[in-house]
Amino acid sequence: MRAVVQRVDGASVAVDGRVVGEIVGEGLCVLVGVTHDDTPEHCERLARKLWSLRILADEKSCSDVGAPLLVISQFTLYGDARKGRRPTWNAAAPGPVAEPLVDEVVARLRALGARVETGVFGADMKVSLTNNGPFTVLVEV
To answer: What are the start-end ranges of the H helices in 36-94?
Structure first.
């Protein structure tokens, strides 16, 4: 499981011109990609990592300050563009495998006490954010 984590001062995701998920102020925008061998245990590890990652102001974590997270599924994180000019998506898990695992990450975060907003799995989403720093890290579990 792979996540691109951005420290933000607000972020939103819209589908068909309607905002479906939004966080205001300091928090994290998290793009989550799932590969074939990911399991619910990977979801648990990723959720704990995201909740405790000390990348907010003054080296605080979301758990320290109650900052929200916007979690968005992103199969393209497992794209491979090393050959040719078109990426391949072979390493990305198919929707029926990936969707419940992304939902599990969200559920595990909420169980930890996080306020989590989401996108819509498989939809054509428009993501807007203000990257604070800029600060972006790649997390793999």
So the answer is: 40-52, 62-65
Q: How far is CA 113 from the centre of its chain?
A: 17
- Dist CA 41 CA 121 (whole Å): 21
- H or E element in which residue 13 lies: strand 2-15
70 has which bridge partners?
29, 117
In the predicted model, residues of the chain with pLDDT beneath 50 are none
Domain count for the chain? 1
At 93, which CATH number?
3.50.80.10
- What digits encode the pLDDT tens for the residues 34-45? 999 999 999 999
In 3D space, the residue among 123, 140, 6 whose CA is nearest the CA of residue 70 turns out to be 6
Catalytic residues: 74-76
> Which structural domain range is residue 136 located in?
2-140
